[in-house]
Design goal:
With 350 residues, this protein is an all-alpha fold. The protein has a domain at 113-308: MetI-like fold, CATH 1.10.3720. It is 73% helix and 0% strand. Helix 2 (34-52) crosses helix 3 (67-77) and helix 5 runs antiparallel to helix 12 (274-283). The chain is globular, with a radius of gyration of 27 Å. The termini are close together. This is Microcin C transport system permease protein. Its main location: membrane.
Amino acid sequence: MGFYLLKRILLMVPTLFGVMLITFCITQFVPGGPVEKMISQLQGVGRAGAEVASGPTLYQGGSGLDREKIEQLKKLYGFDQPPVVRFVQMMKKYLIFDFGSSYYYHRSVVDLVISKMPVSMSLGLWSFVVVYGVCIPLGIKKAIRHGSRFDLVSSTVILIGYAIPGFVLGVLLIVLFGGGSFWSVFPLRGLVSENWSELSVTMKVLDYLWHMVMPITASAVGSLAVMTMLTKNSFLEEIRKQYVITARAKGLGEGKVLYKHVFRNGIIPIITGFPGYFIASFFTGSLLIETIFSLDGMGLLAYRSVLDRDYPVVLGTLYFFTIIGLISRLLSDLSYVVVDPRISFEAIDE
Protein backbone atom coordinates (compact mmCIF):
# COMPACT_ATOMS: atom_id res chain seq x y z
CA MET A 1 0.00 0.00 0.00
CA GLY A 2 2.91 2.30 0.71
CA PHE A 3 4.22 1.99 -2.83
CA TYR A 4 0.72 2.66 -4.19
CA LEU A 5 0.47 5.84 -2.10
CA LEU A 6 3.87 6.97 -3.33
CA LYS A 7 2.87 6.43 -6.96
CA ARG A 8 -0.39 8.35 -6.53
CA ILE A 9 1.35 11.26 -4.83
CA LEU A 10 4.02 11.40 -7.52
CA LEU A 11 1.33 11.36 -10.22
CA MET A 12 -0.26 14.42 -8.62
CA VAL A 13 2.77 16.53 -9.56
CA PRO A 14 2.52 16.23 -13.39
CA THR A 15 -1.28 16.42 -13.17
CA LEU A 16 -1.14 19.67 -11.23
CA PHE A 17 1.60 21.02 -13.51
CA GLY A 18 -0.41 20.14 -16.63
CA VAL A 19 -3.58 21.79 -15.35
CA MET A 20 -1.72 25.00 -14.49
CA LEU A 21 0.22 25.04 -17.77
CA ILE A 22 -2.89 24.61 -19.93
CA THR A 23 -4.78 27.29 -18.00
CA PHE A 24 -1.83 29.68 -18.12
CA CYS A 25 -1.51 29.22 -21.89
CA ILE A 26 -5.22 29.89 -22.36
CA THR A 27 -4.97 33.15 -20.42
CA GLN A 28 -2.20 34.30 -22.77
CA PHE A 29 -4.48 34.09 -25.82
CA VAL A 30 -7.70 35.40 -24.28
CA PRO A 31 -8.25 38.98 -25.52
CA GLY A 32 -8.84 41.80 -23.08
CA GLY A 33 -6.20 41.04 -20.46
CA PRO A 34 -5.55 43.25 -17.43
CA VAL A 35 -3.21 45.57 -19.34
CA GLU A 36 -5.65 46.05 -22.22
CA LYS A 37 -8.50 46.57 -19.78
CA MET A 38 -6.60 49.21 -17.84
CA ILE A 39 -5.64 50.98 -21.09
CA SER A 40 -9.27 51.05 -22.23
CA GLN A 41 -10.34 52.40 -18.84
CA LEU A 42 -7.71 55.13 -18.93
CA GLN A 43 -8.64 56.06 -22.47
CA GLY A 44 -12.29 56.13 -21.50
CA VAL A 45 -11.54 58.48 -18.63
CA GLY A 46 -9.44 60.52 -20.98
CA ARG A 47 -12.27 60.90 -23.50
CA ALA A 48 -14.67 61.84 -20.75
CA GLY A 49 -12.25 64.45 -19.46
CA ALA A 50 -11.70 65.81 -22.95
CA GLU A 51 -15.41 66.40 -23.38
CA VAL A 52 -15.57 68.45 -20.19
CA ALA A 53 -12.42 70.45 -20.84
CA SER A 54 -12.65 73.73 -22.70
CA GLY A 55 -10.00 72.83 -25.21
CA PRO A 56 -7.82 69.99 -26.45
CA THR A 57 -4.69 71.53 -24.93
CA LEU A 58 -5.96 70.94 -21.40
CA TYR A 59 -6.00 67.14 -21.78
CA GLN A 60 -4.20 64.96 -24.28
CA GLY A 61 -5.34 61.48 -23.05
CA GLY A 62 -8.14 61.13 -25.58
CA SER A 63 -5.66 60.39 -28.35
CA GLY A 64 -4.33 57.30 -26.49
CA LEU A 65 -1.52 56.39 -24.12
CA ASP A 66 2.10 56.77 -25.10
CA ARG A 67 4.45 53.80 -25.27
CA GLU A 68 6.11 54.60 -21.95
CA LYS A 69 2.82 54.49 -20.06
CA ILE A 70 1.92 51.18 -21.66
CA GLU A 71 5.29 49.68 -20.69
CA GLN A 72 4.77 50.88 -17.13
CA LEU A 73 1.39 49.15 -17.04
CA LYS A 74 2.94 45.92 -18.37
CA LYS A 75 5.62 46.07 -15.68
CA LEU A 76 3.01 46.76 -13.03
CA TYR A 77 1.10 43.60 -13.93
CA GLY A 78 4.24 41.55 -14.63
CA PHE A 79 3.69 41.29 -18.38
CA ASP A 80 7.03 42.84 -19.26
CA GLN A 81 8.68 39.39 -19.21
CA PRO A 82 8.29 36.42 -21.58
CA PRO A 83 5.46 33.97 -20.80
CA VAL A 84 7.88 31.15 -19.95
CA VAL A 85 9.63 33.27 -17.33
CA ARG A 86 6.32 34.40 -15.85
CA PHE A 87 5.05 30.83 -15.63
CA VAL A 88 8.21 29.59 -13.89
CA GLN A 89 8.14 32.47 -11.43
CA MET A 90 4.45 31.90 -10.76
CA MET A 91 4.91 28.18 -10.04
CA LYS A 92 7.84 28.92 -7.70
CA LYS A 93 5.60 31.21 -5.66
CA TYR A 94 2.71 28.77 -5.75
CA LEU A 95 4.93 26.06 -4.23
CA ILE A 96 4.94 28.12 -1.01
CA PHE A 97 1.29 29.13 -1.54
CA ASP A 98 2.12 32.72 -2.39
CA PHE A 99 -0.68 33.61 -4.81
CA GLY A 100 -0.03 37.34 -4.99
CA SER A 101 -2.68 40.05 -4.93
CA SER A 102 -5.87 40.53 -6.89
CA TYR A 103 -5.81 43.05 -9.78
CA TYR A 104 -9.43 43.97 -9.17
CA TYR A 105 -9.89 43.82 -5.38
CA HIS A 106 -6.33 44.94 -4.51
CA ARG A 107 -6.17 42.35 -1.75
CA SER A 108 -4.18 39.21 -1.14
CA VAL A 109 -5.71 36.26 -2.97
CA VAL A 110 -5.51 34.17 0.21
CA ASP A 111 -7.34 36.82 2.26
CA LEU A 112 -9.89 37.24 -0.51
CA VAL A 113 -10.64 33.50 -0.67
CA ILE A 114 -10.88 33.26 3.12
CA SER A 115 -13.39 36.12 3.16
CA LYS A 116 -15.61 34.28 0.65
CA MET A 117 -15.29 30.85 2.26
CA PRO A 118 -18.07 31.16 4.91
CA VAL A 119 -20.75 31.39 2.21
CA SER A 120 -19.46 28.45 0.18
CA MET A 121 -18.83 26.38 3.32
CA SER A 122 -22.37 27.06 4.53
CA LEU A 123 -23.89 26.01 1.22
CA GLY A 124 -21.64 22.99 0.73
CA LEU A 125 -21.63 21.63 4.26
CA TRP A 126 -25.38 21.89 4.81
CA SER A 127 -26.06 20.42 1.38
CA PHE A 128 -23.75 17.54 2.29
CA VAL A 129 -25.59 16.95 5.58
CA VAL A 130 -29.01 17.11 3.92
CA VAL A 131 -28.07 14.82 1.02
CA TYR A 132 -26.48 12.08 3.13
CA GLY A 133 -28.96 12.48 5.98
CA VAL A 134 -31.96 12.03 3.67
CA CYS A 135 -30.67 9.74 0.94
CA ILE A 136 -29.23 6.89 3.01
CA PRO A 137 -32.37 6.13 5.09
CA LEU A 138 -34.63 6.86 2.12
CA GLY A 139 -32.62 4.60 -0.18
CA ILE A 140 -32.65 1.76 2.37
CA LYS A 141 -36.40 2.14 2.82
CA LYS A 142 -36.92 2.04 -0.94
CA ALA A 143 -34.77 -1.10 -1.25
CA ILE A 144 -36.75 -2.88 1.46
CA ARG A 145 -40.06 -1.87 -0.09
CA HIS A 146 -38.98 -2.25 -3.70
CA GLY A 147 -41.93 -2.23 -6.10
CA SER A 148 -44.39 -0.90 -3.52
CA ARG A 149 -46.48 2.26 -3.81
CA PHE A 150 -44.04 4.06 -1.49
CA ASP A 151 -41.16 3.17 -3.81
CA LEU A 152 -43.05 4.36 -6.88
CA VAL A 153 -44.26 7.65 -5.36
CA SER A 154 -40.88 8.53 -3.79
CA SER A 155 -39.04 7.75 -7.04
CA THR A 156 -41.42 9.99 -8.97
CA VAL A 157 -40.95 12.86 -6.51
CA ILE A 158 -37.16 12.74 -6.39
CA LEU A 159 -36.84 12.34 -10.17
CA ILE A 160 -39.03 15.42 -10.67
CA GLY A 161 -36.75 17.27 -8.27
CA TYR A 162 -33.72 16.01 -10.19
CA ALA A 163 -35.20 17.24 -13.48
CA ILE A 164 -35.66 20.79 -12.14
CA PRO A 165 -32.41 22.82 -12.33
CA GLY A 166 -31.27 24.28 -9.02
CA PHE A 167 -31.53 27.88 -10.15
CA VAL A 168 -35.07 27.33 -11.48
CA LEU A 169 -36.07 25.81 -8.14
CA GLY A 170 -34.43 28.77 -6.40
CA VAL A 171 -36.52 31.25 -8.39
CA LEU A 172 -39.63 29.18 -7.69
CA LEU A 173 -38.89 29.20 -3.95
CA ILE A 174 -38.44 32.97 -4.00
CA VAL A 175 -41.74 33.45 -5.82
CA LEU A 176 -43.58 31.14 -3.42
CA PHE A 177 -41.93 31.78 -0.05
CA GLY A 178 -39.72 34.84 -0.45
CA GLY A 179 -42.41 37.46 -0.82
CA GLY A 180 -42.43 37.26 -4.60
CA SER A 181 -46.12 36.68 -5.30
CA PHE A 182 -47.45 34.51 -2.46
CA TRP A 183 -45.97 34.21 1.05
CA SER A 184 -43.13 36.08 2.71
CA VAL A 185 -41.76 33.28 4.88
CA PHE A 186 -38.00 33.18 4.30
CA PRO A 187 -35.46 36.01 3.82
CA LEU A 188 -34.25 36.73 0.32
CA ARG A 189 -30.57 37.55 0.72
CA GLY A 190 -27.49 37.08 2.83
CA LEU A 191 -26.47 34.55 5.46
CA VAL A 192 -27.80 36.54 8.42
CA SER A 193 -30.03 39.53 9.14
CA GLU A 194 -28.72 43.08 9.48
CA ASN A 195 -29.32 43.08 13.23
CA TRP A 196 -27.61 39.71 13.70
CA SER A 197 -24.97 41.10 16.08
CA GLU A 198 -27.71 42.34 18.42
CA LEU A 199 -29.42 38.94 18.74
CA SER A 200 -28.90 36.35 21.45
CA VAL A 201 -26.91 33.21 20.74
CA THR A 202 -30.03 31.11 20.21
CA MET A 203 -31.60 33.71 17.95
CA LYS A 204 -28.35 34.01 15.96
CA VAL A 205 -28.40 30.27 15.24
CA LEU A 206 -32.07 30.31 14.30
CA ASP A 207 -31.60 33.40 12.12
CA TYR A 208 -28.68 31.78 10.29
CA LEU A 209 -30.60 28.53 9.72
CA TRP A 210 -33.66 30.51 8.57
CA HIS A 211 -31.56 32.22 5.90
CA MET A 212 -30.15 28.88 4.76
CA VAL A 213 -33.45 27.08 4.10
CA MET A 214 -34.10 28.20 0.51
CA PRO A 215 -30.47 28.17 -0.77
CA ILE A 216 -29.83 24.71 0.69
CA THR A 217 -33.09 23.36 -0.70
CA ALA A 218 -32.28 24.68 -4.17
CA SER A 219 -28.71 23.33 -4.15
CA ALA A 220 -29.38 19.93 -2.53
CA VAL A 221 -32.49 18.71 -4.35
CA GLY A 222 -30.60 17.86 -7.53
CA SER A 223 -28.22 15.53 -5.66
CA LEU A 224 -30.95 13.70 -3.77
CA ALA A 225 -32.04 11.56 -6.70
CA VAL A 226 -28.56 10.32 -7.59
CA MET A 227 -27.56 9.43 -4.04
CA THR A 228 -30.94 7.91 -3.17
CA MET A 229 -31.01 5.64 -6.21
CA LEU A 230 -27.38 4.66 -5.65
CA THR A 231 -28.20 3.67 -2.06
CA LYS A 232 -31.33 1.79 -3.12
CA ASN A 233 -29.62 -0.17 -5.89
CA SER A 234 -26.64 -1.01 -3.69
CA PHE A 235 -28.81 -2.38 -0.88
CA LEU A 236 -31.19 -4.09 -3.29
CA GLU A 237 -28.27 -5.95 -4.87
CA GLU A 238 -27.04 -7.10 -1.46
CA ILE A 239 -30.51 -8.18 -0.30
CA ARG A 240 -30.75 -10.58 -3.26
CA LYS A 241 -27.43 -12.29 -2.56
CA GLN A 242 -27.09 -15.84 -1.24
CA TYR A 243 -25.69 -14.95 2.19
CA VAL A 244 -28.86 -12.98 2.99
CA ILE A 245 -31.04 -15.97 2.04
CA THR A 246 -28.84 -18.16 4.22
CA ALA A 247 -29.09 -15.78 7.18
CA ARG A 248 -32.86 -15.71 6.90
CA ALA A 249 -32.97 -19.52 6.65
CA LYS A 250 -31.05 -19.75 9.93
CA GLY A 251 -33.84 -17.83 11.61
CA LEU A 252 -32.25 -14.39 12.02
CA GLY A 253 -34.66 -11.51 12.37
CA GLU A 254 -35.17 -9.14 9.44
CA GLY A 255 -33.68 -6.22 11.34
CA LYS A 256 -30.55 -8.17 12.27
CA VAL A 257 -30.14 -9.41 8.69
CA LEU A 258 -30.50 -5.90 7.33
CA TYR A 259 -28.33 -3.94 9.74
CA LYS A 260 -25.76 -6.59 10.69
CA HIS A 261 -25.10 -8.18 7.31
CA VAL A 262 -26.59 -6.15 4.46
CA PHE A 263 -25.82 -2.69 5.79
CA ARG A 264 -22.03 -2.99 6.07
CA ASN A 265 -21.80 -4.33 2.50
CA GLY A 266 -24.47 -2.14 0.88
CA ILE A 267 -23.10 1.07 2.36
CA ILE A 268 -19.64 0.64 0.78
CA PRO A 269 -20.35 2.49 -2.54
CA ILE A 270 -21.85 5.40 -0.58
CA ILE A 271 -19.13 5.65 2.06
CA THR A 272 -16.31 5.56 -0.49
CA GLY A 273 -17.56 8.82 -2.00
CA PHE A 274 -17.86 10.39 1.44
CA PRO A 275 -14.31 11.87 1.80
CA GLY A 276 -14.27 13.56 -1.60
CA TYR A 277 -17.78 14.95 -1.25
CA PHE A 278 -17.10 16.13 2.30
CA ILE A 279 -13.87 17.96 1.40
CA ALA A 280 -15.37 19.44 -1.77
CA SER A 281 -18.34 20.75 0.20
CA PHE A 282 -16.07 23.20 2.02
CA PHE A 283 -14.58 24.80 -1.07
CA THR A 284 -17.02 24.63 -3.96
CA GLY A 285 -19.44 27.42 -4.77
CA SER A 286 -22.53 27.67 -6.89
CA LEU A 287 -22.66 30.74 -9.11
CA LEU A 288 -26.38 30.61 -9.89
CA ILE A 289 -27.49 29.85 -6.32
CA GLU A 290 -25.23 32.57 -4.93
CA THR A 291 -26.50 35.07 -7.49
CA ILE A 292 -30.18 34.28 -6.94
CA PHE A 293 -29.96 34.55 -3.16
CA SER A 294 -27.36 37.39 -3.08
CA LEU A 295 -24.66 35.30 -1.44
CA ASP A 296 -21.12 36.52 -2.07
CA GLY A 297 -19.20 33.24 -2.14
CA MET A 298 -16.58 31.37 -4.15
CA GLY A 299 -18.82 30.80 -7.16
CA LEU A 300 -19.45 34.50 -7.64
CA LEU A 301 -15.78 35.29 -7.00
CA ALA A 302 -14.65 32.84 -9.69
CA TYR A 303 -17.12 34.23 -12.21
CA ARG A 304 -16.15 37.85 -11.59
CA SER A 305 -12.45 36.99 -11.69
CA VAL A 306 -12.79 35.45 -15.15
CA LEU A 307 -14.77 38.43 -16.43
CA ASP A 308 -12.33 40.95 -14.96
CA ARG A 309 -9.30 38.95 -16.17
CA ASP A 310 -8.13 38.81 -12.55
CA TYR A 311 -5.48 36.22 -13.28
CA PRO A 312 -3.95 35.94 -9.76
CA VAL A 313 -7.36 34.95 -8.40
CA VAL A 314 -8.16 32.63 -11.32
CA LEU A 315 -4.84 30.80 -11.30
CA GLY A 316 -4.32 30.88 -7.52
CA THR A 317 -7.71 29.39 -6.70
CA LEU A 318 -7.33 26.85 -9.52
CA TYR A 319 -3.99 25.70 -8.09
CA PHE A 320 -5.40 25.34 -4.58
CA PHE A 321 -8.63 23.62 -5.60
CA THR A 322 -6.80 21.24 -7.94
CA ILE A 323 -4.68 20.09 -5.02
CA ILE A 324 -7.81 19.67 -2.90
CA GLY A 325 -9.47 17.67 -5.69
CA LEU A 326 -6.47 15.36 -6.13
CA ILE A 327 -6.24 14.72 -2.39
CA SER A 328 -9.97 14.04 -2.10
CA ARG A 329 -9.77 11.48 -4.93
CA LEU A 330 -6.88 9.75 -3.19
CA LEU A 331 -8.82 9.64 0.08
CA SER A 332 -11.82 8.20 -1.75
CA ASP A 333 -9.67 5.38 -3.12
CA LEU A 334 -8.13 4.70 0.28
CA SER A 335 -11.57 4.58 1.87
CA TYR A 336 -12.27 1.42 -0.14
CA VAL A 337 -9.58 -0.39 1.86
CA VAL A 338 -10.86 1.01 5.16
CA VAL A 339 -14.50 -0.01 4.68
CA ASP A 340 -13.95 -3.21 2.66
CA PRO A 341 -11.21 -5.56 3.93
CA ARG A 342 -11.55 -7.66 0.78
CA ILE A 343 -9.81 -4.92 -1.19
CA SER A 344 -6.05 -4.58 -0.98
CA PHE A 345 -3.48 -2.50 -2.83
CA GLU A 346 -0.78 -5.14 -2.38
CA ALA A 347 -1.55 -6.68 -5.78
CA ILE A 348 -1.32 -3.26 -7.37
CA ASP A 349 2.03 -2.64 -5.70
CA GLU A 350 3.37 -5.90 -7.08
